[in-house]
Amino acid sequence: MASFSDFSEADLAALKRAKHELETPPLGMKLAAIVGAPVEKLIAKLPAVANDKVNDATQAALRKCLQLALKTLGKPGESALAAVVPAKPSNLLHKFAVATTGAAGGAFGLFALPVELPVTTTLMFRSICDIARSEGEDIANADAQLQCLTVFGMGGRSASDDEADFGYFVVRGALAQAVSKASSEMATKGFAAHGSAALLKLMQTVAARFSVQVSEQVAAKSIPAIGAVLGAMVNTVFIDHFQNVAHGHFTVRRLERRYGEAVVRAAYGEIEVSLD
User: N or C terminus of the chain with fewer C-beta within 10 Å?
Assistant: First the structure.
């Protein structure tokens, strides 16, 4: 069993912070606090066509992120991401950009989703890559790019999750095999890997989880006359949630590179956090 004495004081504090970020309250609870209504009830009021729109928009959004990842593989100096990824993550800059797209979504509602979500998700993906690089990841590497993509699948439950034994390492483990196979294809085939069976399987797995959070976001914007201001606030909560997950995930990976996976996982399990 790992001992907290195995860690430096700074690294132990980072791990505690990471667990708080990864075991954070569900997105729906955060959105409910903003809009003043239970998100589950708002989802139930969405029109029947909303589910198809969410699924289609989610798939399109993740495809754009994957295309960006494939185009920037192995190009650390030429990467389209390089200009927006400084030494420290620009979380506020990305929040502002996503808030702007949320303002449009708040004004036009569900009709804006096919246009807004791919833009919002791409901005969020850039922010996640930004955070990954700040934690020592080489985002020109195939595995690191896919780890960024899987953050969208770590931000909450999927419709098939049961209530028992749910947590960061459970979700990460469920995604691991799909990530490994897709990473191998991306590393060997580059952009030609687009549309491969391994990448498609990973995309479907992540999309199934991410679409739940997108539905909650859409529901929060479905309140009549929500307006641009509240739409921007909803999007700010949305990106903040995934930024927290990214910070937690890539902190854990950084510590695993230093101390080993088993040591970090054991220490993570011993940490008690308040999720107020």
Answer: C
Stretch 173-188: mean pLDDT: 87
Residue type, 37: A
Contact 93, 242 (CB under 8 A): no
**What percent helix, strand, coil does the chain show, rounded to 5?**
75, 0, 25
- Where exactly are the structural domains of the chain? 47-270
Predicted confidence band of residue 113 (pLDDT cuts 50, 70, 90): confident
Distance separating alpha carbons of residues 111 and 98, to the nearest angstrom: 17
Give the predicted TM-score (pTM) of the model: 0.85
| 251 CB-side CA count, 13 A | 21
Angle at 20 between CA 96 and CA 174, to 5 degrees: 95
* Cα separation values, 123 from 45, 98, 119, 276, Å: 29, 7, 6, 28
Helix (H, G, I), strand (E, B) or coil at 37: coil
Q: How far apart are CA 105 and CA 76, in angstroms?
A: 34
